[in-house]
Amino acid sequence: MSMRIVSIWVGGAALLAVSAATAALLLPSCEVALPFGSLWLGSCPGTILQDPLAEDRVASAALRAEIRSLEARLAGLDCPAPVAAPLPAPEPLPEPEPETDPPPVLDKDMIDKADLGDLQGCWALDSPYRTQNRATGEITEFSEWTVCFDAGGNGTETMRGSNGIRCEGPVSGSFVPGQALVIEEAANLPCSNDMEILQRRVTCRVDGAERASCSSFQPESGSSSEVIMRRTQEAP
Q: N- or C-end of the chain: fewer Cβ atoms within 10 A?
């Protein structure tokens, strides 16, 4: 009976020895612990694994330190705000020209009043006007005929023709109270082409459209023509 027990234990020891040897071959660098007592077969040194993020953490810490240093330097800087240049003073606005009353137009009240001071200012042609050379028959169209008076009824007339001529001479104005304004030439009107317009007497009345409807009469030729004159703002 005792021999069988010894055989069993010897067989068990042999089995354990084979298992330990096999483990030693399969794991040559590792420790193998036997299940009995504190017996160890073989050993391997412990392996230290490196942290792959260690370098990044060191770099991040360095950057944070540099940022804190730069912030401290910026906090100590004295940067005065730029001072804006003063704006130039605005130029004074031009003073408005004093308003003047428009000159009175030719109306019934002016004719009834017959004040020569009311004539002061200029009157202009507001309708076609033409003359004819008695020697040659040539007709000249006039687009401008302006008469300007002073406060005493004395004035000057100017005419410009389509052929470029200019005619200019003195005139006088007067009223026939309650009837008309009369504009008279002192003599024939000389022109720049060495011709003359025969002396005229222009009588202006107020028509139904409240215009100065004027009849231009030439005593020497006995002819007359109708024209419309208007008041202008032009100074004499």
A: N
d(C-alpha 182, C-alpha 167), whole Å: 20
- Measured from the Cβ of residue 183, the count of other Cβ atoms closer than 10 Å reads 23
Long-range contacts of 171-179 (CB under 8 A, 24+ apart): 171/147, 173/116, 173/119, 173/147, 173/149, 174/116, 175/111, 175/114, 175/116, 176/111, 176/203, 177/111, 177/112, 177/114, 178/111, 178/112, 178/114, 179/111, 179/205
The CA R_g of the chain, rounded to the nearest whole Å, is 64
Amino acid at 175: F
Instruction: For residue 127, report the phi and psi dihedrals to the nearest 5 degrees.
Output: -160, 165
Q: One-letter amino acid identity for 64?
A: R
| Amino acid, single-letter form, for residue 51 | D
Each residue of 92-149: pLDDT tens digit?
888 877 776 777 788 889 999 999 999 999 999 999 999 999 889 999 999 999 999 9
